[in-house]
Amino acid sequence: MRIDVVSIFPEYLQPLQLSLVGKAIANQVVDLGVHDLRRWTHDRHHTVDDTPYGGGAGMVMKPEPWGECFDELLDPEDATGTVIVFPTPSGERFSQAIAHELAGVERIIFACGRYEGIDRRVLDEASSRVRVRELSLGDYVLNGGEVAALAITEAVVRLLPGVLGNPASLQEESHALSQGGLLEYPVYTKPAQWRGRPVPDILFSGHHGRIAAWRRQQSAELTAERRPDLLQP
Ligand code: JF8
Description:
Bound molecules: 5-azanyl-3-(1~{H}-indol-6-yl)-1~{H}-pyrazole-4-carbonitrile
Largest sheet: 5 strands, parallel
Number of strands: 9
């Protein structure tokens, strides 16, 4: 999979070189390009923002640098497999289901806005050329799209074939999270006693059926307590 990230803070994407995504890049499962939007400016000050038409607070990202950026990054021959993701608090909520959808595309381009966002015409024009998704990480305010690009990339790349060492953990997790739709049960490791706190006896019983039932019960209780929304039909 090819992933491009466009940002006025390209250093923000450095963490993608670490850990699981970094290994996927090293193993050529992912081909990552990080680009400074200012590369597609032509004025002395590399201006990417301007005041909003109609008035209001803050600045808006100018369309021209984004337009020239996409002109360069998009291959007009082969746009069918490309999705441009615009992180935005007014986007559709990103989810594990969307992570699976994105894991099936050839190429993702993340367009990371700053300030009050990007001129709407950039998204409209991009939509006429490739598939576009406006995605939100959740209902809280960030300063730009970079953190969302990091989060979405990690969620997508770990689904790619050959990235996770143990595909059984993907299976189990999709059971506990997206398919089964419940939160994960609590997990324990050695030592059996720690600071006066024991590991639940059931986990030493060797009864795999009872352990599975206990874990399902724990998941159900936790979900009812913390995420009752996940239990709605
Ligand atoms: C932004 C560009 C976001 N869940 C989220 N909260 N805030 C954002 C976000 C995304 C892009 C920009 N401000 C300027 C905030 C997402 N995704």
